[in-house]
Amino acid sequence: MRAILSGLHHKKKLQELELELIDVPEPFDDLVVTFLEKQTQVSLTLPITKVISAGVVRIRLNANDLRVPESTQSDFSWELYLNLQQQDTRGLIQVESEYLSDRHQLSLTSFYQLNSDANGMALFNLHTNQPDDEFAISAINLQNDQLQITGPNRINNRKIDNQRLVLKNGQDQGTAEWPITKMGLHGLFSGVIPLSDLASNSKQELFIRSTVDGQDLEQRVILGKSLAGQVTQAITGHHRLVVIEKRFNNGIQIREMAAPSLPERLGHLPSKVGGATHLLSVLMEKVNLMYMRRLFKRGHRAYDQPTLIFESFGGRQVSDSPYAIYQLFTQLYPGFRFVWSIDRTQKKFCKQNGIPFVVRRTAKWVRTLEKATFWISNARFPAWVKKPSYVTYIQTWHGTPLKKLGLDIENVSMPGTTTTKYHANFVREANRWDALVSPNDYSTQIFRSAFGFNNQILKVGYPRNDELINSSAEDIVALKTQMGIPLDKKVVLYAPTYRDNQFAEKGKYTFELPFSLDDFKQQYGDDAVLVLRMHYLISNALDISGYEDFVYDMSNHPSISDLYLISDMLITDYSSVFFDYAYLKRPILFYPYDYHMYKDELRGFYLDYERDLPGEIAHNEKELLTMIGEKLQTPDMSDNPKFMDFYRRFCAIDDGLSSLKVVNYVVQQIENQG
């Protein structure tokens, strides 16, 4: 029996902790959770507040109740235990942690964080009696000739008003102030100070001014964690050196001085430079599989610097949740090393966007993969890729399951494998994942059974969906302009799945549009355009020659979330894209033109396809063309009861901070490793 802390929800001024229960006998509503404070040994027992679904429950508490009144402590660390009191089963199960939170400010002088101990057990840490003149930020970096600061703009879900950054000069006591602009992620701000604004030869301390509950405040900026992974030095165009320093009191000091000369900088280079990197760089670009296997069998040692490898769809794209995590990581912790594992087709994209990469199936790729400390991928690595013991492998996966997965597929018809081999490879690969990202309770349960997976599940939502929650109308206009999509027309997004039986030979897939582009254009071409997003396995198997003024093939666009945002409706069949698109509460139309064959002969479904979908089903091309017009007339589905039931079941977990939660998980692993 296991109990796992898997989520945190805010209910006005209260907190709800979500627990996943594995092999715990029902009834769940008879269970209680005991909190035990580690130092004082004071305990607090709370009942299960709500049973969400099979194996998922919540308890509601007020974090302020976790203070121990008689204690002189200001910091409290509470362990959690599931207290079994059923007739046949009694005892305590210590709650594990799969959820790590940011700092949640309860007031100016108190905050809490959900964390885990060295053994992965859950801790609810409450900090009280904190100075009201301190303000904790999330990250600080020197990039693009700017001092960049990221931090919270809320206290206990109440917005902080009129935030400004302030530098105080230690020499002449002078001050300067810069306004703060909002960042893309909900609940955070992003402020910048141009390095050209810094006083010469100065030591300046960073403050923040704001208004909280009508009170004007000036607080010293602090950083509770280390500066590891953040860029703390920069040389400006005027040959000036700027350095970020963390002081003994966690405060932030900015020093500006003359940059060292070239001979001085060269004098600080290491005296020995290894030749292994140069040797690997001149190895031939293509190596055969046997050579790759031999390379993976060689012993490797991890890089001294934390190194994260990202891969999306087997290197075919730079996209999806790994890309969302990468973008936030490079913003908050640019001092770490980030490398993308890519197919050769992605080299141009990476070079154009300044993304460091290594080409798959090269000697350099093997070395980089084996010496990295984190792998972050949304699909499986080849079975012959060796995972070192020091690697933490985070699997983001790539969708909420509609179709059967892994062990649940009874008959596998994909090229180059058999059902037995596919099942064995799937379980073997899943057991290499140290953590698996899940978007909802439904997916968590399927992942555990279909993958035979018993390691950590991070139920934080898909990072790729953060963009859906944090984007504005202006952002959507900018995206359309960037993609060349007309601003005066509706956008219909067609994003079907690939069929397991739709292959010509191993590695080659085929696809044909199941409706007439001529009929589509004749009926809607004056008022709408069609955007295609094909599955990555078939994205190169489609020809739209002659329709370029009406059809836009965005199959290789790095972010499918961009396509969701620019579209007014979605047409799909069995692809899991509709789970994500539902976040926007826009109309969804299903066109399963081969439904019965797909259901009965291919994979089958977890949901009842005819009852549980958040939209209507078009069974033929005539119905499809009629329903498109109807859906374009109902742009908001918020008043549709069936749609909103679906939304509450599958979409309610996401708060626009999924990327941040995964980043926090990785950073904690790095700091725990020293």
UniProtKB/TrEMBL annotation:
Major location (coarse): membrane
Subcellular compartments: Cell membrane
Membrane topology designation: Peripheral membrane protein
GO cellular component: plasma membrane
Any one of the GO BP annotations: teichoic acid biosynthetic process
GO MF term (any one): CDP-glycerol glycerophosphotransferase activity
Protein name, UniProt field: Glycosyl glycerophosphate transferase
